[in-house]
Amino acid sequence: MITNGYNSKEIITECIETITPARKEAVLARNVCSDDTTWTTTVRIIADVRTRGDAALIELALRHDSVNLDSLEVPKSRRRAALNNLDPDLRRSLERSIRNISSVQRAFLPAAVDVSPEPGILVSHRWQPLNRVGVYAPGGRASYPSSVLMGAVPARIAGVGETILCSPPGPAGEPLPAILAAAELAEVDRVFAIGGAGAIAAMAYGTATVPRVDRIVGPGNAYVAAAKLQVSSQVGIDSPAGPSELLVIADATADPDVIAREVMAQAEHDPRAVVVVIGTTQSVAESIARRVSVTLPAQQRRDIIEQALASHAAFLWAKDINQAIGFSNEFAPEHLLLAVHDAISLAPRIRSAGTVFLGQCSSVAFGDYMTGANHVLPTGGLARSYSGLSVLDFIRWTTYQQVDSAAAESLAEDVGIFARAESLPAHAAAALQWAPSAGMRS
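and the corresponding structure tokens:
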């Protein structure tokens, strides 16, 4: 947990070179795994859903969402009604986002590969879309239609056979209207009014009503994150996810007010949201810190922002841009904003980040909703090894291998040597039957 980033009187700025090892470790350390209580509770929920199916899901909705569900599935007529009643301005924004996501994700689709490493050997690499995927969208009291689009639209572009959506029921016993409208616009096939760990279990193992899927994607709370980890041996997931993160590298060309607004936008996500600002000089870091202090009191979600800054923020300065980039690569943030001169030239040096925003005009908020990239991204330092959600998460690859008779003769002796070295005589025999001395031809 990051500490000392903020208190009621001032924001403390720190020099990267002089912070103690323990303090640096505190800044770098984030945990995408939940606490023991959340983990064990999730284990019980998953076991209950596996055993009792729909009945367990209905009980969970009553216990956690205070609704008595008549049906887990939301009829298509209700989704159409939600879309028809949607605010026209919001619908226009959703449709624009869908167009941009579609354009970007379609460009991300990979090409098939054929390669012949030796005469007579042909190795092909072909992809197919997954048969069925499950998208999770947070809901209940808050509405996040953007999460629907980020999961469902790339799945459709990939050609997935069936896309289902799970989102917690609101007071009316179904996901909030904006969620249903977004599902309709994104061409989701089926929608279920279930949330939390129960929804993840239902999609992973299937129930009488909810079909089993091949991959589960989408953000959620600590119980959702724990459940995805627990079912990941049975079904694909996007990446383990924790609280949202932003790291900003700013130099003297950055406007402190712009950066302060980015800090506010990130911190208002959740009291556990993580914000790190690195100025390339002490004066840059201090200018941004002052503007954050001035901006905070007017924020509508001040309490949440204040909690995040108090426990999960750091305002640092580096001796130069090289040290700032080195720290960022070590931190591996979910979102990285390069608010520096000629940010594009620095992009190749970024080795670990979920997504990178180049230049202070490239607000993280634009990426959250409208650029066509995806806001489902690795957190907790997992950007070192995981990528953000994309169309590539909804396809799988198959390799095809063809060996003609001449190549079989050529390969046989060396493969036999390999197989004998590994004490696998049947492998050797299978290969050597094609050796010229065996007298066999296809």
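(Above: one complete record from the training split.) The mean pLDDT is 94.
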